[in-house]
Design brief:
The structure is a homodimer of 242-residue chains. Chain A is an alpha/beta fold and 242 residues long. Helices cover 34% and strands 17% of the residues of chain A. Chain A has a single domain, classed as Rossmann fold.
């Protein structure tokens, strides 16, 4: 897959399109929305199979603006994650939407396990990418080169780690599309000078017993994601020794 | 106003209620939602005058779960901000909802200019509080002691600075209500180990010309907020020398 250059002239409108879906994690979308809805000369559409409300993993309900079939052509494609991503890994309608829109987009931006969905759509082959810390080991099944970083940019594919990493990724995307001064103005507007009260945001810094407990809680989903990743790898013709 | 202690026993359910409203800034709510919807033994309701979709400042549409009249009694009351807060500063229905719910809540948590709304409801009298960097100067009109901090806790009133500060505030609220281990587990789950790509999140760190431009952009709203704050101060019986 060929990505065109990401730079977009200021006078050229940027159509942003984000996939939303049941059981997603809303902050994967709403974090980037806070940043990217502030890009000058842009508009933002939320897209799903229908325009009926979509309920996130924890119960927040969002209204899509357009259906997959009626979405405007997208310049910046955003793919969030969350447990519901797993249900779409072999969904032809969603995967062909992603492939088609990514093919014309100037930039594709995955957040959290949205990267796995992009992988299933064949968008990660040969690219460096990242995802939620509990899912990094699956990236190789989509032909990606896994990176344990907060944000990874390879050509015009930007991937952010778990959930809140979407804010950091979005600021990088903003700089990529409209320049650093715009990104800095947005950062000031949304007062993004984080001060996490605890140092527990990554598995190497969180208390060991908390890491273990969280892994245990998601054991079933993690096993399911592995089985799916293997099936997808076979379909994509990606060979993984494991 | 008397606040009871914030500690809630693990076996006791926590009813979280967040006000939502037209022209709010969605991240003031969705940031804290990502954290607090993960509290064990809790449920989260979005509340507005009706249950019709609410459109945020930048166009994201959220669905309220309950109306002001039908909301369940709230243990943790969340008040987000955004430009639409200004329209509610003299709205009797909203203000009396806030006063009534705050009177029974274990904890009240304002994000961004949600603090001004709490101020108008008389909840800030004699308390230290913070808000968005462009609005800190208004806090005194509500009898509050303004603090330029990311998060301020005074008794059981927690206030966070602009927009994204809601995440930091929410983690503190989580620790307050369910203990630090729970807050740390949530932080790991949402991979909150922020790495802002620029150092432009506060007016003292952002480039001077960007600060000036942003102030200019919000000149009209800032003037309007001042006029409103003065009217509210008179109503609350708060005397400000200015």
């Amino acid at each position: 897959m060929q990505y065109p250059s990401a730079t977009i002239p200021p006078e050229q409108h940027i159509q942003i399109g984000a996939l939303v879906f049941p059981n997603m994690d809303q902050i994967d979308l709403t974090g980037p929305f806070a940043v990217l809805s502030r890009l000058p000369n842009s508009s933002f559409q939320l897209i799903w199979k229908s325009t009926m409300p979509v309920r996130d993993h924890k119960g927040l309900r969002l209204l899509p603006d357009a259906s997959l079939a009626n979405a405007k052509p997208i310049d910046l494609l955003i793919v969030p994650g969350g447990p519901g991503q797993e249900d779409l890994m072999e969904d032809k309608q969603v995967l062909s939407f992603l492939t088609a829109q990514a093919g014309r987009a100037k930039c594709v931006f995955s957040v959290c396990t949205g990267a796995l969905l992009c992988g299933a759509a064949g968008l990660l082959k040969g690219l460096e990418a990242t995802t939620h810390w509990q899912s990094v080991q699956f990236l190789k099944y989509f032909g990606a080169v896994p990176k344990e970083q907060r944000v990874v940019i390879d050509r015009t594919f930007v991937s952010a780690a778990g959930l809140t990493a979407g804010m950091d990724g979005a600021l990088k995307v903003a700089a990529l599309l409209r320049g650093e001064a715009i990104a800095q103005a947005i950062q000031l507007d949304i007062q993004y000078a984080p001060e996490p009260p605890f140092d527990s945001g990554t598995p190497d810094r969180a208390p060991t017993e908390i890491v273990a407990k969280l892994k245990q809680t998601s054991e079933k989903l993690t096993a399911q994601r592995l089985a799916t990743a293997r099936r997808v790898a076979a379909k994509l013709g990606v060979r993984v020794d494991d």
